[in-house]
Specification:
The complex is a heterodimer of chains A (about 50) and B (about 750). Chain A contains two helices and no strands. By secondary structure, chain A is mostly helical. The C terminus of chain A is likely disordered. In chain B, the strands form five sheets. Chain B has a seven-stranded mixed β-sheet, with helices on both faces. The N terminus of chain B is likely disordered. Classes of the chains: A mainly alpha (about 50), B alpha+beta (about 750). At the A-B interface, helix 1 and helix 2 of A face helix 3, helix 5 and helix 6 of B.
Chain lengths: ~50, ~750
Amino acid sequence: MAGLLYLIPVALFLGGLGLAAFFWTLRSGQYDDLDGAAHRILFDDEGKPPPG
Amino acid sequence: MALSAPQRDLGLPSCCLPVAADLAAEAEALAAAATPAVELLTDGTRRLSLVVETLDCAACLPAIEGCLAGLPGLRQARVNLTTRRLTLQWDSSAPPLAEILSPVLAQGHRLAPFAPGRLDRLVEAERRLLLRCLAVAGFAAANVMMLSVAVWAGLLGGEADGGEMGPATRQLLHWISALIAVPAVLYAGRPFFRSALAALKAARLNMDVPIVLAVTLATCLSLFETLQGGRIAYFDAALSLLFFLLLGRLLDHAVRARARSAAENLLALQATSAAVLLPDGRIERLPLQALVPGDTVVVAAGERLPVDGLVTLGCSDLDSSAISGEGLPQTIQPGMAVHAGTLNLTGELRIKATAVGQDSLLARLQDLVETAEQGRAGAVRLADRVARLYAPAVHVLALVTVLGGLAWALSWQDAVMNAVAVLLVTCPCALGLAVPAVQVAAVGRLFRKGILVKHADALERLAEVDHVVFDKTGTLTLGGAELVEAGALADADLALAAQLAAASRHPLAQAVVAAARARSLAVTALPVAVQEWPGAGLVARLPTGEARLGSAAHLGLSQVAELDGPALWLRRPDGAVLRLRFRDRPRPDVAATLRRLQALGLGVELLSGDRAPATRALAAEFGIADWRAGVTPDAKHARLQALAAAGKRVLMVGDGINDAAALTVAAASMAPAAASDVAQAAADLVFLGERLAPVAEAIEVARRARHLVRQNFLFALTYNLCAVPLAMVGLVTPLLAAILMSTSSLTVTGNALRLVGRR
């Protein structure tokens, strides 16, 4: 049972990292344009118009 | 936004093609208009949001951002496809605003400055709050659940003192759960606390009151149990409850926010400044608020009209599709009345203002639309009707449980614990998800089919519809122009007409170019410049003689037979005169769609403002027995009210300002995306493309959504009927509560997703 004493904090820490990452994505505006994001992935390079 | 003809031909949307225009002037005018909307940020940079009116396809994103990429001093240029807005941020080393904007204008985009209002920020803040709360609730629920599973497993079988797990370990797990759960509940519960408090202050009950009660009671009692070293804690139930409810809230918010941003873009279309001719002859740009009736305003080609007024000088063609939905521009001469919000296409105009700001026609129409929307908000949605019965019932049940428990000589602690179990299992997890999940699935499905849902409750109303009223021009037809009997024209004549027409933005001219391309004729540039005479036509002085394309008057023809449709005249260099006729083409699938609507059991009716012969011909072509021609906007309004009084639930499909009033009184309304902005603002749903089939599709999806919502409610009710008696006698353990709650939420969501799955 002693394993719990460090396994639980480890699990919480990893979960916390995920949460922090989510907050960062939220703050950097990655959910502001979900429609655009779906299409942007198809373009070769950001800031470069597609050929033609 | 209808694709204009030559561009459709190239297979590219209108938004992605360069057009020739007086760029510099247009950019200057826009920059001046945008100046009041520029925000000065704390780090010294400036920021501006613009509505990109012509943003129709995803290919515009890299095109717009790419053309701005190299500019010095421009920190950020980002297009948002969801809100159709372009955000620019630049510092002092950047060129003047007009220079920044001109490459975007050069791509043929129409821009309007957009000043984000206070409400906007509130909505955006609300969304972020919900997302953050959802993340915290999800994180905490997952981790507490992990610990709870261990506790439940430990409670099963084994040692005589109540399970394999020792009390010390259980105590430790409970304490860790409490440490995660209490802050998480305080953080993630805020949207519910706030709303419940507001409701209680107003002495009302809403769905959030039992939620808050259940969550806080469950948390506090679990904390109390933990302090006492007890065996039962409901931390996981409180958190998963919050998680599921926040999910429902977020879905609901997404549907509403999309609807709102469409309405705001409309407001931004109004010009925000105007060039005013001062008494001393100078021209000065003034903000719109500073104008008074009687001022003379100068409007360059390509600008939107800032005021209602009378034309005092200049000729032009005016695109009034934003107001009337009429596809063909109107020829404007001195003395004519013009309206704010229309677009000046070809020549400079001077206008004496008669109504400014809130008195202009555009503003009055927006008021009308807003009033109608507020009226609609009063209609009680299905979910609210359920909630109104649900919240008091839940409270009574919980109270009965406590009193009953005490009467049965339970300790007060056990009695309250049972009441908490009742509150937890009855909590409207499934109810809170039942409607938003179906709505999001339905709206998403419609979006992929090119139908935008503008009001969150529009689908509910659409499902009830039993009668469909169509407008004619622009709704059953495409509202644009198409060259007819093109076969009668020789290749050389059509090519010459197209060479002239290529210089104009006029829709008839663009239809000529489209016809030439359809015949694979090369539209080469003429050796001389083509001149456009506003409101008249085009002239080119070729070496072989003068060629003209335009109205009969433009060619000097006086005796012209009455025509049944719009026409252009072409004079060849050798002096021969030819007539080009145009017609308004019906949408390609009108007949099939009407059959589909009739198969759905709907009555179909045609109400047109057009003259009787044209309307009769169209009605006969598609077998519409019930038609009325020459109907004024007031008459349309009255007809719809009469239908409503007769107990019909009417879907109005229309595209113009003359339909806007009718759109707002109908039970549900749709407008094509090529419609006037006012009509789009008034409509519940907007459909893209040339086909009419979306009308039938939307009704089908709405009916299926209504069916699923009812199924979901039925399911949630059955679940409660089974679980509540168990909870009242204290048979619901935390494990059972968790299982019941998640299965009901997952079933409801899964049921909603069936709408996405079926093709």
